[in-house]
Amino acid sequence: KRGAGKIEVAEPRNKLPCPAPSLPTDPALYSGPFPFYRRPSQMGYFSLDAQRQYHGDAHALRYYSPPPTNGQGPNFDLRDGYPHRYQPRDEEVREGLDHLLRWLLEHRGRLEGGPGWLAGAIVTWRGHLTKLLTTPYERQEGWQLAASRFQGTLYLSEVETPAARAQRLARPPLLRELMYMGYKFEQYMCADKPGGSPDPSGEVNTNVAFCSVLRSRLGNHPLLFSGEVDCTDPQALSPQPPTCYVELKTSKEMHSPGQWRSFYRHKLLKWWAQSFLLGVPNVVAGFRNSEGFVCSLKTFPTMQMFEHVRNDRDGWNPSVCMNFCAAFLSFAQNTVVQDDPRLVHLFSWEPGSPVTVSVHRDAPHAFLPTWYVGAMTQ
Ligand code: A3P
Ligand code: MG
Ligand code: MG
């Protein structure tokens, strides 16, 4: 039985309070066949510069440039430059969907899919969808998604939970350095020009981003979403985006079968969800030792990741992830009925509980900016 059939729907009853609608997240409820997922196609892109300013171009796209495979393996010092050559993005700035909305505003006249396609679509960040995909297996971090319907389109924008905010503000120094190391790895693996060489002497500025904008469909839910792309492989066999894109990741070096098992169960799920959604075919991992050096690389094809947990009782299942996401999108579509950019349905989830909903108007939860609503209303 698919979980979608198990949604509690509030039905009017005489003199009885309506039970608030909620959506369960237990993996067992979503273990049907893999749902339809349209091959994601790139509709456009944009870049964010060192000051986090939007540009409707690809200048921030970097080119995959792995070290030569002859001789010894890599020896990347991921701590090099920390903290003096680090310009971290200001995480207090709540961007919401703004950059994606700017792209959408500038391209709304020439979207494929025919007239009315956008009105039936869901617009969000890929990262929000990644969180939905991993929800049935997540035991640590909850999430909140704000939803507004405007001109038919359902917009989903994540809200930082109070717990996540508290954790971020109290982030231990070692975790801050670990975050830097993930970006530093990208610098060792990417060049600014196709065929160029990486330059690890520069600064690491996490304001800079290249974002692909894609169209897909999950079940009967048309999707328009954007996701950050680490780099493109100039030598990719299929040069067409998103299949030329490469996702870069770092992870702790593993020394025992137990460590590998845990990596497959937890980390590979997140890597799979993130790259599968956008259609990125390969994730290149750099394994760092206790001194923070990457001495080995391994490529994980996205479509082969599930094989590592297929026969694992405590593993994850792509069908469960996608069926839950489809069920959530149906739940959201059915809950957010009123078309009003100032009205917000806030979907909240904590591990071990179902997804619940609360309703809000205007600040602080409304997230569709007046410049967007105004321009779209012209
Ligand atoms: P890792 O590759 O080591 O995870 P992404 O992999 O999505 O391109 O993100 C690049 C880096 O951003 C990550 O490197 C990590 O350092 C940092 N990062 C991304 N998401 C994070 C999160 N939720 N918490 C902490 N750091 C994060
Ligand atoms: Mg990235
Ligand atoms: Mg990455």
Short description:
The protein is α+β, with helices and mostly antiparallel strands and 378 residues long. Helix content is 24%, strand content 25%.
Structural description of this entry:
By secondary structure, this protein is α+β, with helices and mostly antiparallel strands. It has seven helices and 18 strands. The chain has helices at residues 98-107, 126-134, 162-169, 173-189, 257-278, 318-335, 370-377; strands at residues 41-48, 54-55, 63-64, 76-77, 86-87, 122-125, 143-150, 153-159, 190-191, 204-205, 209-218, 221-228, 231-232, 245-252, 282-288, 293-301, 343-349, 356-361. Strand 7 and strand 8 form a beta hairpin. The termini are far apart. One magnesium ion binds next to loops.
Fraction in helix: 10-25%
Estimated structural class = alpha+beta
- Figure out the total of helices: 7
Q: In angstroms, what separates the terminal alpha carbons?
A: 46 Å
Order of helices and strands: EEEEEHEHEEHHEEEEEEHEEHEEH
Q: What fraction of residues sit in β-strands?
A: 25-35%
Largest sheet: 9 strands, mixed
What global shape is seen?
globular
Mean pLDDT across the residues is 96
Stretches with pLDDT under 50, minimum 5 residues:
1-9
**Total beta strands:** 18
Bound molecules: adenosine-3'-5'-diphosphate, magnesium ion
Blueprint of the fold:
Layout lengths: L40 E8 L5 E2 L7 E2 L11 E2 L8 E2 L10 H10 L14 E4 H9 L8 E8 L2 E7 L2 H8 L3 H17 E2 L12 E2 L3 E10 L2 E8 L2 E2 L12 E8 L4 H22 L3 E7 L4 E9 L16 H18 L7 E7 L6 E6 L8 H8 L1
Parallel strand pairs: 5-10, 6-8, 6-12, 14-15
Antiparallel strand pairs: 1-2, 1-11, 3-9, 4-16, 7-8, 7-17, 11-12, 13-14, 15-16, 17-18
Helix pairs in contact: 2-5, 2-6
The chain binds adenosine-3'-5'-diphosphate and magnesium ion (2 copies).
